[in-house]
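TL;DR need structure tokens for one chain.
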Amino acid sequence: MREFGFEVALCAWLEREREGVVSRQLGASSRGKRVIDVARVEPGPDFSARAAISPRSIPDRAITSDVGVGRWRYWKEAFETDSEWAKEACEEAIEVGFFERARRGGREYVRRATRYPDAWFGQVVGIENKPDLGTPGDLERQLRTDVSLALFDEVVLATESYVTRAHLNRVPREVGVWRFDPKAGTRKVIREPTSLDSAGWGIEVLNRDPARTDVAVVSSAEKARLRRRLAERAYGKGWRTYDFPGCGEVEVSEAAGTASLPYCRWKGRTVRPAAECGPTCPGHDPADAPEIDRDAERDRRTPWVRNPAGRARRQAGLDRFE
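>> reply
TL;DR here they are.
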């Protein structure tokens, strides 16, 4: 559970010290084999246009569909497939306000409520957390995959450990290294990251053993789609994805500039409620969960907009079925 406390404290620090949106535990590969601990998405020139659409993620299948702004389309003809996945993406796009719906002759037609602002995000930074470098696990393989795929503009390793030259030699030279103190909320840059070619082709490592390494070549177009999908997921998800437990020992921590972290007085540290709290905990003290509005907290601290005005357009001629 030490990694959870480290991770959310780092997210709080990034939110306080850097502009943009911060999220955690996001898919960061083309084959679903890589999950990045933390991602920070910097605003682009059209960020406000994206924020005006919805506080939730817009599904990638809806963005890449043939649904346009000015003309109604039968939804099955607007997607490459009429599978359950396409229908789910269509329904979600309607729910978040990206699509509008109309029915005619027993069929469902859709159109975009607004254009999608492709330039809403700028640089995307991936951060892998390893509080204790004494137990690296698959760290080196994960970071080498991040560098060769170059889905992120920069990749950083964040640790609480003292960083030796031996540690640095095991980390790809393109990866930046931070030493972060979650209690004090302070960061020391050990090595700056090198900018990666996020716009070019990438190589994704699929499997590796002593005799063979399987890789996949990822085109620049596919990387652009993956980056947009990750940015959308980060915008809608954020990093406060936990509920506070009903326990009198847990309080909302604001120590060291952190924000809305679940701090347990009995354990003396930040806890992961879903895994550590409940009747099985020896220190459990049944009580009402602390009252905290996580969305309001995020809205106050970041450019993410909780209640956007919406971008649905009602122009002359567009409100008639065509």
